[in-house]
Amino acid sequence: MTKVGIKKSTGIAALLCTFAAPQASALSLEELAKRLDALEAQNKHLMTENSQLREAVALTNDKVEAAVSATETIVESTSGIQKLANFADKTSIGGYGELHYNNLSGKGGAKDKDEIDFHRFVLFFGHEFTDDIRFFSELELEHSLSGDGKEGEVELEQAYIDFDLNEQHTARAGLFLLPVGIINETHEPPTFYGTERNPIEKNIIPATWWAAGAGAHGELGAGFSYDAYIHSGLNVGDDFKIRNGRQKVSKAKANDPAATARIKYTGIPGLELAVSAQHQQNMGQGLVAGLDSGNLIETHAIWSTGPFKLKALYAAWDIDGSAVKAAGADQQKGFYVEPSYRLSDKFGVFARFNQWDNKAGSNSGAAKDSEKEQVDFGVNYWPHEDVVIKADYQYQNNDDGKDQNGLNIGLGYQF
Hints:
Layout: H1 3-20, H2 22-90, E1 91-107, E2 113-128, E3 133-142, E4 153-164, E5 169-177, H3 199-203, E6 210-221, E7 224-231, E8 258-265, E9 271-280, E10 294-305, E11 308-319, H4 322-326, E12 331-342, E13 347-357, E14 371-384, E15 387-396, E16 403-414
Antiparallel strand pairs: 1-2, 1-16, 2-3, 3-4, 4-5, 5-6, 6-7, 7-8, 8-9, 9-10, 10-11, 11-12, 12-13, 13-14, 14-15, 15-16
């Protein structure tokens, strides 16, 4: 017999001996039963506690998951709000508009004009991508209603991006207003006198005038600043009217681009002096025989001292080509002088003398009776610095005798 077999036999024998002792066995069974009962009760208690613990852990897990989800939601919401706040902080919205009433009597063949017109409704949108890169745009509805057979137009007057090269110089690219004249870049109604824009900048320059291109502007020091751009040019037709040559960057002919530059001086408080020049190699984009290159020179001065302000502007075109010379339109020029006086922070009065000629060229016969004169005087009332009510009277003395005289009333705003 092996040692393992001996050990098994010994254990069995011991167990049999235990049962063979009646008194000792009875005491052990009773104690064993008590212990088993105690163990069973303890086991049930532990099982109950274990079940409760599992439920508590599960409930805790649910709460933790809910808390994490809520936290993520709050973080996402906070992040969204922060992004919206950042966007709003870097985005600007503005605009201006003007309502006109004209009551003019025509003579010498000129038509009467008695109408009311919401001339312009304009919205500005701008956005700052970074401290050095900014976007600006201007969307305009003219004459209240546009579409086939309607009087109005929807126009994109500006849509450009500025890139700061350093603190003094900025590059610009896109669609922008050209740096010529006084009102071409700044023409919100509360900023100027008279219901209508002056006829010199309208018919000679011609404001409002925008193009697409690229260039730069900046400060030169000692009160001098500059602007210089290469951009899309005019497309003047065989009527040789400068204003009709504006292409407004709508599938614009780009056979012959143009270049415009300006130098401005503001080194003395209250004084602004500026001169602008533009050159275009072919004013008709090569589409009009006898119409070649053109050069524009514009200069103006603004002097403000206390409540008194004086504006003066001169602009002239010199255009080459046999056909334009034959029509007397190779020279087109004009000027105006405008004194004004602020009676208070709400009232101001002005007068303006305008003279212009779109056929002041070398062929005097063709240019006969082409000079025009207009005198304007009136009042501006600002109930708020950004809201203006205007009333003025215009009197014309044109060489051809076709004059329109009468009253203009306007309401304008900016924000």
